[in-house]
Amino acid sequence: MLRLMSIQSLMALVTDLVGRLQDGSLSEGYHRPLQRGSAQGAVAVLADQEGEQLLLVVRLSIMQAPRERLQQFLATLLELNHRFHGRAAFSLDDLGMVHLTAGRPITDLDEGEVIDLILWTSEQADHYDDILMEAFPK
C-alpha cells in the first residue's frame, strides 16, 4: 500500500509538471520534493551552465560515500553510469553524498518524457540505493 501511495504522489507531481509545461508556466525556480522508497530528492527547473536554456532536473540522494573501499565504490558508480546509457548519472557532492541525477531541456519536452524522467530515475534511485548500501556499508 505504501508503494502505491508513493506512485500516486509521483503521478500528482507529473500532472502538475505537465500542466505547467503545457500552459507555459514552468519556469526557473520550480522546485518540488520527491521521494520513492528510501531515495529522496527533488524535481527542479534550472538554467544550464551557459544560461541559454532551462532544464528539468531530477536529483535523488542515495547514500553517503563509504570511507573504506572508496576507489572500488567509485568504479562501481562509473559502471552503473555506463549501463544507464546517458539517461542518468551518479555523482558525488562536496560533502560526499552520492546522488542520481537526470535532466532534459524543457524545450519540446512532452508528457511521456516528463513521466519517464521522473518515474524511471526515481525507480533507479530506489533500486540502487539498497544495493549500494548493502555492498558498501558505512
Task: Give a nutshell description of this structure.
44% of the residues lie in helices and 28% in strands. With 138 residues, it is of the alpha+beta class.
In the predicted model, the low-confidence regions spanning at least 5 consecutive residues are 1-5
The end-to-end span amounts to: 30 Å
Q: What's the SSE pattern?
A: HEEEHEEH
Determine the fraction of residues in helical runs and give it as a percent range.
Answer: 40-55%
The spatial strand order of the largest sheet comes to 1-2-3-5-4
Number of extended strands? 5
Protein architecture, described:
With 138 residues, the protein is an alpha+beta fold. It contains three helices and five strands; from the N terminus they run αβββαββα. The chain has a five-stranded antiparallel sheet with strand order 1-2-3-5-4. Helix 1 (2-23) packs antiparallel against helix 3. Residues 1-5 have low confidence and may be disordered.
Helix/strand layout:
Blueprint: H1 2-23, E1 31-36, E2 39-47, E3 54-64, H2 70-83, E4 89-92, E5 97-105, H3 111-135
Helix pairs in contact: 1-3
Looking at this protein, list some descriptive labels.
alpha+beta; 5-stranded antiparallel beta sheet; 3 helices; disordered N terminus
